[in-house]
Specification:
The protein is mainly alpha-helical. The chain has seven helices and no strands.
Length: about 220
């Protein structure tokens, strides 16, 4: 017999996939705001952003999870943790750093609404009730791999092609505005933050499992 939690997990993963598709379509659709300025979340050029890539990765993992569940196989707990930690990092960076640093920008408009808020929040809720294996602490470091690989690619691209100016800058996050030393420190902090979010999500998942169990007992 299929449990209600399993049905909810299937629905949440389907929602994640749908939200990612909607966000991608909106991102690729050329639209303009009322003042005539093109929104930041438009075009293939946005695939350079970790915030976008993390959401696409999360959507792909949800597809793989559903396919694996349908086949009756065991899905990788580390891969699921890696995906939720990536979008969790996106949510945290936008909410606590980019949005406060850029109050003149609406970072929750257009495709950003889906990628900066809806998908990350849905994915984190899904992980809270996910019946998954616990990833050993050492292996949780692997969950920070996406931000590490992205950061290295970001810096190598700048070292090869230069920072550039204006809309053609290769430092699109502006992390090197204070110099390379500060930029490296920022990326190191981001990687540690990615790992911390992975550990936090595992901790919350543990308590989520207990709450689900207590709720099941209370209903009997």
């Amino acid at each position: 017999m299929i449990s209600k939690r399993y049905v909810i997990l299937i629905l949440l993963n389907l929602l994640i996939i749908a939200f990612v598709v909607v966000g991608t379509v909106v991102m690729l659709t050329p639209r303009r705001t009322e003042d005539g300025m093109v929104l930041a979340s438009r075009g293939l050029g946005n695939l350079r952003y970790f915030t976008v890539l993390s959401n696409e990765f999360c959507g792909i993992v949800s597809v793989l999870w559903i396919v694996t569940e349908i086949r009756g196989k065991h899905f990788s707990a580390l891969l699921k943790l890696m995906s939720v930690a990536s979008v969790g990092l996106t949510f945290a960076i936008v909410a606590f750093f980019l949005a406060p640093m850029n109050p003149h920008l609406n970072l929750y408009m257009g495709g950003n609404f889906w990628f900066h808020l809806v998908v990350p929040v849905t994915a984190m809720i899904e992980y809270l009730i996910l019946d998954t294996d616990r990833v050993p602490l050492k292996k949780t470091l692997i969950a920070a791999l996406p931000s590490l690989v992205y950061g290295l690619g970001y810096l190598v691209n700048i070292l090869i092609n230069g920072i550039g100016k204006g809309p053609d800058t290769n430092d699109w996050y502006g992390f090197l505005s204070w110099g390379y030393g500060t930029g490296f420190l920022i990326f190191a902090f981001v990687v540690l933050m990615n790992w911390g979010i992975a550990c936090l999500m595992q901790f919350l998942n543990k308590w989520g499992q207990r709450l689900v169990a207590l709720f099941a007992i209370a209903r009997k």
